[in-house]
Amino acid sequence: MTLILAASSSASGGGSMIFMLIAMFAIFYFLMIRPENKKKKKMEEMRNSISLGEEITTIGGITGKVVQVTEDTITFETGEDRVRIQVKKWAISTTAKMEAAEAASKKRK
Predict the structure, then answer these.
(1) Where are the domains positioned within the chain?
(2) Cα 87 to chain center, whole Å?
(3) Does domain 50-109 have CATH number 1.10.10.10?
(4) Rounded to two decimals, what is the model's pTM?
Protein backbone atom coordinates (compact mmCIF):
# COMPACT_ATOMS: atom_id res chain seq x y z
CA MET A 1 0.00 0.00 0.00
CA THR A 2 2.76 2.44 0.87
CA LEU A 3 4.56 1.61 -2.37
CA ILE A 4 1.52 2.62 -4.43
CA LEU A 5 1.08 5.79 -2.37
CA ALA A 6 4.73 6.79 -2.86
CA ALA A 7 4.55 6.17 -6.61
CA SER A 8 1.44 8.31 -7.03
CA SER A 9 2.92 11.23 -5.05
CA SER A 10 6.14 11.22 -7.12
CA ALA A 11 4.14 11.10 -10.37
CA SER A 12 2.17 14.22 -9.42
CA GLY A 13 5.43 15.99 -8.48
CA GLY A 14 6.86 15.24 -11.93
CA GLY A 15 3.78 16.72 -13.59
CA SER A 16 4.15 19.97 -11.71
CA MET A 17 7.84 20.07 -12.63
CA ILE A 18 6.98 19.80 -16.34
CA PHE A 19 4.36 22.51 -15.93
CA MET A 20 6.93 24.79 -14.25
CA LEU A 21 9.42 24.22 -17.09
CA ILE A 22 6.78 25.05 -19.70
CA ALA A 23 5.76 28.16 -17.76
CA MET A 24 9.39 29.30 -17.46
CA PHE A 25 9.93 28.80 -21.21
CA ALA A 26 6.76 30.79 -21.98
CA ILE A 27 7.88 33.65 -19.74
CA PHE A 28 11.36 33.59 -21.29
CA TYR A 29 9.84 33.65 -24.78
CA PHE A 30 7.51 36.60 -24.13
CA LEU A 31 10.07 38.66 -22.20
CA MET A 32 13.25 37.96 -24.20
CA ILE A 33 12.85 36.26 -27.57
CA ARG A 34 9.69 37.88 -28.95
CA PRO A 35 10.72 41.53 -28.33
CA GLU A 36 14.13 40.87 -29.89
CA ASN A 37 12.51 39.37 -33.01
CA LYS A 38 10.20 42.40 -33.27
CA LYS A 39 13.17 44.74 -33.00
CA LYS A 40 15.08 42.84 -35.71
CA LYS A 41 12.07 42.94 -38.02
CA LYS A 42 11.61 46.69 -37.46
CA MET A 43 15.30 47.36 -38.20
CA GLU A 44 15.16 45.24 -41.37
CA GLU A 45 12.10 47.16 -42.59
CA MET A 46 13.85 50.47 -41.84
CA ARG A 47 16.97 49.42 -43.76
CA ASN A 48 14.94 48.24 -46.76
CA SER A 49 12.94 51.50 -46.89
CA ILE A 50 15.96 53.84 -47.06
CA SER A 51 15.69 56.17 -50.04
CA LEU A 52 17.93 58.68 -51.84
CA GLY A 53 18.60 61.91 -49.97
CA GLU A 54 17.83 60.46 -46.57
CA GLU A 55 20.10 61.23 -43.60
CA ILE A 56 21.54 58.08 -42.00
CA THR A 57 23.86 57.10 -39.15
CA THR A 58 26.02 53.97 -39.27
CA ILE A 59 26.77 51.69 -36.35
CA GLY A 60 30.19 53.35 -36.22
CA GLY A 61 28.65 56.80 -35.78
CA ILE A 62 29.31 58.15 -39.29
CA THR A 63 26.48 60.31 -40.61
CA GLY A 64 25.66 61.32 -44.15
CA LYS A 65 23.15 61.65 -46.96
CA VAL A 66 22.27 58.62 -49.11
CA VAL A 67 23.25 58.95 -52.79
CA GLN A 68 22.84 55.35 -54.00
CA VAL A 69 20.94 52.29 -52.77
CA THR A 70 21.43 48.76 -54.09
CA GLU A 71 20.08 45.44 -52.90
CA ASP A 72 22.63 45.00 -50.10
CA THR A 73 24.76 48.19 -50.04
CA ILE A 74 24.24 51.89 -49.47
CA THR A 75 26.50 54.70 -50.65
CA PHE A 76 26.34 57.99 -48.79
CA GLU A 77 28.17 61.33 -48.72
CA THR A 78 29.67 62.74 -45.55
CA GLY A 79 30.30 66.39 -44.83
CA GLU A 80 30.89 69.24 -47.20
CA ASP A 81 33.88 67.61 -48.88
CA ARG A 82 31.46 65.06 -50.43
CA VAL A 83 33.42 61.96 -49.52
CA ARG A 84 31.43 58.91 -50.59
CA ILE A 85 31.37 55.83 -48.39
CA GLN A 86 29.80 52.51 -49.31
CA VAL A 87 28.55 50.23 -46.52
CA LYS A 88 26.40 47.13 -46.21
CA LYS A 89 22.78 47.73 -45.23
CA TRP A 90 23.22 45.91 -41.93
CA ALA A 91 25.71 48.66 -40.90
CA ILE A 92 22.97 51.33 -40.78
CA SER A 93 21.77 51.96 -37.23
CA THR A 94 19.29 54.84 -37.61
CA THR A 95 17.78 57.29 -40.04
CA ALA A 96 16.67 60.87 -39.43
CA LYS A 97 13.02 59.79 -39.75
CA MET A 98 13.48 57.04 -37.18
CA GLU A 99 15.19 59.38 -34.70
CA ALA A 100 12.41 61.96 -35.11
CA ALA A 101 9.73 59.32 -34.53
CA GLU A 102 11.47 58.08 -31.38
CA ALA A 103 11.80 61.64 -30.04
CA ALA A 104 8.11 62.30 -30.71
CA SER A 105 7.07 59.11 -28.91
CA LYS A 106 9.23 60.03 -25.89
CA LYS A 107 7.56 63.45 -25.73
CA ARG A 108 4.11 61.83 -25.67
CA LYS A 109 5.06 59.73 -22.65
Answers:
(1) 1-48, 50-109
(2) 20
(3) no
(4) 0.67
